Amino acid sequence: MSQTFPALRRNLVAILRGLRADEAGEIGAVVFEAGIEAIEVPLNSPDPFRSIETLVRDLPATALVGAGTVLKAEEVDRLHGVGGRLLVSPNIDADVMRQAAKRGLVTMPGVFTPTEAFLALKLGASALKFFPASVLGPGGIAAIKAVLPVDTTVGVVGGVSDTDFAAYAKVGVRTFGLGSSLYKPGMSAAAVSERAVAAAKAWDAVFGQRPI
To answer: Which residue among 7, 132, 196, 197 sits deepest, i.e. has the most Cβ atoms within 10 Å of its Cβ?
Structure first.
């Protein structure tokens, strides 16, 4: 069964592409402690399912942990098997979406056009990931958002950082995936913490923090 996108204190997803399994616990902890509750480990990272399993084990149950760059239905089963609850992809694939619905995962497939957006919603997407958002920009996304159901959770990913929150807020977008602006392979936990804290503060400044 498809899941709705959960109510997070901040609609931020940390994209930890390139995360190593031996650092997953430490990096995940500082991200969560900064106030970012959703964490995605793209499957083109080293040993991603081990990293996801570590994050699920070490972080509080309120953390929304999962995988990105999910391209195959069998990867959905592996994600579910290690306790992941969030599935993010760069595209919209019917087999992946059906398997995710069967496993009860929160899904955020990548879309770029109205056709893809409506297909994703038809297939039960919990939220839409407009990717690469920097190409469409706030104006392009606003134009597509205008024809979507009003309760659609619209997220933007790709070339987006905390400096873009205000511009997207003006067109009604409040969900963001932060990748290289938050984490790059080789960064220390202290450096990631600093960026995560800054991103959380920037989100609060634009949207206000939701109550726990």
So the answer is: 196
pLDDT tens, position by position, 20-57: 999 999 999 999 999 999 999 999 999 999 999 999 99
User: Distance (Å, rounded) from C-alpha 124 to C-alpha 92?
Assistant: 11
Bridge partners (DSSP) of residue 178 are 14
**Chain CA centroid to CA 66, Å:** 9
C-alpha pair distances (Å), 49 with each of 69, 82, 122, 189: 12, 7, 28, 20
Gap between the Cα atoms of 124 and 127, Å rounded: 9
Q: What is the pTM of this model?
A: 0.95
Residue 106 phi/psi, 5-degree rounding, is -80, 125
Angle between helix 73-81 and 94-103 (nearest 10)? 20
The confidence score (pLDDT) of residue 3 equals 83
Q: Which residues contact 165 (CB under 8 A, 6 or more apart)?
A: 176, 202, 203, 205, 206, 207
Residue 177 pairs in a beta bridge with 13, 157
Distance from C-alpha of 142 to C-alpha of 210, rounded to nearest angstrom: 24
Residues 6 or more apart in contact with residue 125 via CB below 8 angstroms:
2, 92, 97, 107, 108, 109
Q: Write out the catalytic residue numbers.
A: 40, 129
